[in-house]
Structures are given as structure tokens and as C-alpha cells.
Amino acid sequence: MSTDAAVSVAPEVAGELARIIDGRAVRAVFQPLIDLASGDVVGFEALARGPAGSMLESPGALFEAGRVAELDWVCRAAAFQAAARAELDPALRLFVNCEPASLGVACPDDLWPVVDVAERRLRVVMEVTERAVARDPAGLLGAVARARAVGWGVALDDVGAEPASLAVMPFVRPDVIKLDLRLVQGRTTAEVARIVNAVRAQAELTGARILAEGIETRRHAEIARTLGATIAQGYLYGRPGVLPTGSRPTRAAVELLQEPLATDTRTPFEIVAAERATERAPKDLLLPMSKHIEHKALDAAEPGVLLACFQEAGHFTPATRVRFGRLSARVALTGALGVGMPPTPAPGVRGAALHPGDPLRGEWDVIMVGPHFAAALVARDCGDDGPDADRRFDFVITHDRGLVVRAAQPLLDKLAPAS
What we know:
Elements: H1 11-22, E1 27-35, E2 41-49, H2 59-64, H3 68-85, E3 93-98, H4 112-121, E4 123-128, H5 130-135, H6 137-149, E5 153-159, H7 163-167, H8 169-172, E6 176-179, H9 181-185, H10 190-206, E7 209-212, H11 218-226, E8 231-232, H12 268-273, E9 279-282, H13 283-299, E10 305-312, H14 318-328, E11 333-339, E12 350-354, E13 363-369, E14 374-381, E15 392-398, H15 401-412
């Protein structure tokens, strides 16, 4: 779906969209989510519709028309209002979609009372899509933190449709992983097997639930179970419609993961060095180790996240630019940080310009996180003068997945959104 800045629509479409948004005329319909083991309804996904008979009745037409950020808030409020009217049992989860364009936009004042009540009464799970992942990973992680701060769960939607959605799973740490419907309705290929293995690994590590979309036949349900899904959604169990009243309490509630640790404000070196012994070596001896971690991106069958802090843009040499441009073609998300670093330091590479006083200026970090591989070289400059190759660093190399993900977080948080 297009963002506001990219939308160009006919005047009659723009007028109809204004009528719908300004009049808060969005309708909410709901599709049940079923526990595959018990057959219980464990929640509902809220889906948006324009007014019946409108040229913008379908969700595709509605969101393609523009004003996506405000429209997204209107859709969410409509879902909350409908859930309140139906007296949705608080044991059931209410899944609501969140468009990337609305992640950093405040709720309109007139909708806030509805959202405020939902935060206190409903068991909401915020669904974020691969579009949010690919466009603005830092904004996505901020939205995830805000959702969890008010007790909401987080679902990563359409997993398998976009490589970046697999790559950021360790950082989002979703409570629910929603498999893209093509994984259930298409053939089980080697690509599908790779995606499913990555999802299963994340679910086993964290306890996340796997939800399969697009279940239309008993065969689809059988495939979903084989793929590791424990929750299902699709026409086999019910089409989108009015939320039923008097819902029964579920015996198989969708529990959220334990509250994640608070955001760590330390640098990658500080995070890792607090738990691992440091060593000291000159830069020329550390370079082969850093390149080995970088090149794991080329070896990996599954896409990952490659992040590197170069201290200053001057260390991002022409040779490094060529190397990272090549790596970015195989990695789901590639980032480079440093003082003076441009937004796109190489084709396909996300840049982040550090403030000269940022503690990261004193670090050289190379971090790779994939579905099955994780490694980090974190190093702090000892402040030597002389040739660049002779500069010494205190460093740690770790393959501890949890520690690597924590070390990567401060770098990921600083990446600029895609233009």
C-alpha cells in the first residue's frame, strides 16, 4: 500500500476518502482465529472496510487512496468500538493491523478516548507487516516497544512474503508469527522449507505461537500443522463479518511472551564486554575476522541483518563500499554507521550519521544476525596514533545469539528510514 507522499488519485476518489476519514465512516469486520488442537476460537482479526457501496469499500482501494496514517488510526478505533459494543470476552485476543506510515504518528485527539479504553480493557495484538520492516526498522522497533509498554502483544504478519520479515524476527521478538498464505496454499518448495525452518527456530527459542493464514480446506489445515502452526485463520473457519456477542471464554488462550528486557542504552562493546573477557589486537589482525563475519551473509541460505559501525565515514573506503554493495544484494538489511556517513553509503545499504560526541564513534563493530547464525566483533579504539593498520582495539568476538542480538539493537535503532 502506498504512503501518503506517493499517492496521486482522482479528485472524486480524494473527495470520497475525505468523507470517509473526516466522518470516521470506516467499518470493522472480524475473522475468527482458531486453536488447531482444541478447535476453540482464541481471538479475532479486525479488518477494515469502507462504507457499503462506496468506491472505496474494499480495503485495497481504501488504503491506496492516501492519508494512510490517519486512516490507519480511524480503522483501529473502529475495531475497538465494535469490540466494545459486542462486549468481546477479555480472554480473547483482538488482532489489529498497523500500517508503517502510522507508526510514528500520534493518535488524533478525537479517537484517543476509544484507544485509551482499548489499552485498558482489550487484549490487543498489534500486527506489523514486512512493509514496516523494510522501510523503517528503527521506527518499527519503537512502535513495538510502545505497544508492549501498554500490555499489547505483537504479531509479525505475512512472514515469508518479504526476506526482511525473517531477518528482524529476533529483534521484534513477536508473540505471534503469521505465515503468509502462499506457504499454505502453494507447493512445499525448498524456499518454503527454509522459511518454515527459520520460523520454527524462532518459535522454539522464544515460545512464540505460529499462525497460518489462508486456511480454506482441510488439506490446508493439515499443511498448517506440518508447518508448525498452532493457530489458523481462513474461510474454513469463518469469513469476515460482524463480531459475535456473548463469546465463550477460550480454553486455549494466546499467551504473550514474558516481558522483554528494557531497551539497553549501552554501546555494543559495553553490552558484550560486560559479559565476556576482552582482548587487545591491532586493526590489521582484526580485519580478516571482521570480513569473515561479513561474508557469512554470502554463505547464508536465509537472509539476515548485517550492521557495521566504522567510527567515521572516512573508514568506509571505496573498497568497503564495493564490498558492502555486493553484500547488500544478499542480505535482507544492511546498515553502516559513522560520523559523516551518508544515508545511502553504498547501493542497498542504509546509512546512519553519528553525532561527533556519540560513544559509538569510539567503536568498530561488525554484527551479523541470521535465522540460524549470529556473530559479532565489537571493538573499542585504544586511541593510538600512527598508521591506521597499527591502531589497537580492545575487542570481543561472540557467537552467543542472545548477546549478539542485544549488541545489534543500538545500531539498528539508529538506521535511517528508506527514502
